């Protein structure tokens, strides 16, 4: 977490406890088991309540599919996070309980608002308000960006109060919408989020932050269990679960010790994609929140790529950049790597745009591609 006194407290604590392997394994196993149990229930519930996507129109799937993916992810992660607090893993941070409360309370807001969106298909305005409220709750519970290392000058910079709020809110909203926009191919958003959670967990374990490492481990277990049903051909879609994942990852990136740069690298490809879409839609006089098939994963699907091939491509890129983020190297080199990722994605999308007519990009909101094979 980015807190002025946190680093001093950790060093002064003289933390020498061994790795709590049983607690780590139990956390992952519980989250996995809960997701495997809750996802089939969410599939049935979505179909029963009509919270499902039907084939036809701009939809590319072949059967009615529940979009209550938020339910098993929320239930498995929150349930496991609470259970893991009983394992007695020592904490390095006296404010950890406050931050956990912020994560849980903010998650409830995002989850409930997401369920309403799944049911009522809310407009962008109410969704934005819910996202802002969730972010405000997290920031109010000390999950905020207060300081960062500036690789351009090689020094740590401390933000003023209003800068903390703006930077933190931008981070939360950016992550929620990045994962949300990524959800257009079976298993893609969940797979990328699984890699992001795993890289964050590895970083926390390496830093000796065992108590907070339980959180990304719980998220990884929940995502793995969910992917059993979400991978192509999907039996359940993420729906509002994509925004929920974005919020949770945004929280974990800060709780991990302000490792925003770590997640920026892991999520470099989808972040670059979203940045390009905002610029490209503005260039074409479109609203940035208006859905279309201009995203890289959707363009690849329209070019004939199977969902599995797209997921493998994104997963490989995220794993590679995650490894780069974990390897000790000068911050300026990591910034250069991120810049190369952004440039590569933007150039690729620009080439796609130059080869396709405008009408092909404006055919509707993101939707899963047809089953492979």
In summary, what is this structure?
The chain has 373 residues and is mainly alpha-helical. The chain has helices at residues 6-13, 21-49, 70-84, 96-120, 124-140, 161-182, 188-206, 210-230, 241-255, 260-266, 268-283, 296-302, 307-326, 331-355, 358-361; strands at 52-53, 65-66, 147-150, 155-158. Helix 5 crosses helix 6.
How would you characterize this protein structure?
There is one protein chain. The chain has 373 residues and is mainly alpha-helical. The protein has a domain at 6-259. It has helices spanning 6-13, 21-49, 70-84, 96-120, 124-140, 161-182, 188-206, 210-230, 241-255, 260-266, 268-283, 296-302, 307-326, 331-355, 358-361; strands at 52-53, 65-66, 147-150, 155-158. A two-stranded antiparallel ribbon has the order 1-2. Helix 2 runs parallel beside helix 8 (210-230). The radius of gyration is 20 Å and the shape is globular.
How is the quaternary structure best described? single chain
Widest sheet: strand order? 1-2
Order of helices and strands: HHEEHHHEEHHHHHHHHHH
Structural class call reads: mainly alpha
Percent in strands = under 5%
Give the strand tally. 4
Instruction: Report how far apart the termini are.
Output: 45 Å
Integer average pLDDT: 83
Question: What composes the largest sheet?
Answer: 2 strands, antiparallel
Provide the helix percentage.
55-70%
Radius of gyration, Cα only, in angstroms? 20 Å
Uncertain runs with pLDDT below 50, 5 residues or more? Answer: 1-16, 357-373
Number of H/I helices: 15
| Silhouette | globular
């Amino acid at each position: 977490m980015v807190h002025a006194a946190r680093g001093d407290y950790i060093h002064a604590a003289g933390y020498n406890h061994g790795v709590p392997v049983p607690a780590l394994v139990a956390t992952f196993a519980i989250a996995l088991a809960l997701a495997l149990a809750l996802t089939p229930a969410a599939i049935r519930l979505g179909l029963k309540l009509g919270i499902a996507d039907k084939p036809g129109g701009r939809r590319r799937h072949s059967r009615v599919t529940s979009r209550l993916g938020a339910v098993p992810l929320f239930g498995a992660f929150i349930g496991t996070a609470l259970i893991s607090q009983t394992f007695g893993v020592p904490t390095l941070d006296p404010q950890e309980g406050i931050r956990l409360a912020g994560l849980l309370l903010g998650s409830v807001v995002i989850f409930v608002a997401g369920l309403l969106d799944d049911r009522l298909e809310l407009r962008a305005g109410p969704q934005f308000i819910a996202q802002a409220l969730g972010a405000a709750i997290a920031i109010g519970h000390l999950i905020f960006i207060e300081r960062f290392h500036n690789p351009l000058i090689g020094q740590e910079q401390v933000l003023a109060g209003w800068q903390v709020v703006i930077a933190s809110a931008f981070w939360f909203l950016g992550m929620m919408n990045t994962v949300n926009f990524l959800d257009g191919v079976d298993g893609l958003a969940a797979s990328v989020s699984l890699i992001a959670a795993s890289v964050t967990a590895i970083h926390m374990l390496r830093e000796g932050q065992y108590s907070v490492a339980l959180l990304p481990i719980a998220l990884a277990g929940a995502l793995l269990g969910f992917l059993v049903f979400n991978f192509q051909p999907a039996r359940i879609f993420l729906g509002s679960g994509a925004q929920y994942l974005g919020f949770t990852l945004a929280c974990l990136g800060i709780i991990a010790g302000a490792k925003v740069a770590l997640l920026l690298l892991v999520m470099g490809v989808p972040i670059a994609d979203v940045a390009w879409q905002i610029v490209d839609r503005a260039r074409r006089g479109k609203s940035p929140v208006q859905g279309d098939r201009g995203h890289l994963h959707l363009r690849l699907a329209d070019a004939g790529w199977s969902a599995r091939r797209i997921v493998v491509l994104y997963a490989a890129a995220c794993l590679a950049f995650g490894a780069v983020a974990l390897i000790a190297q000068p911050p300026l080199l990591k910034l250069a790597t991120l810049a190369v990722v952004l440039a590569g994605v933007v150039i690729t999308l620009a080439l796609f745009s130059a080869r396709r007519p405008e009408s092909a990009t404006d055919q509707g909101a993101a939707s899963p591609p047809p089953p492979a094979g």
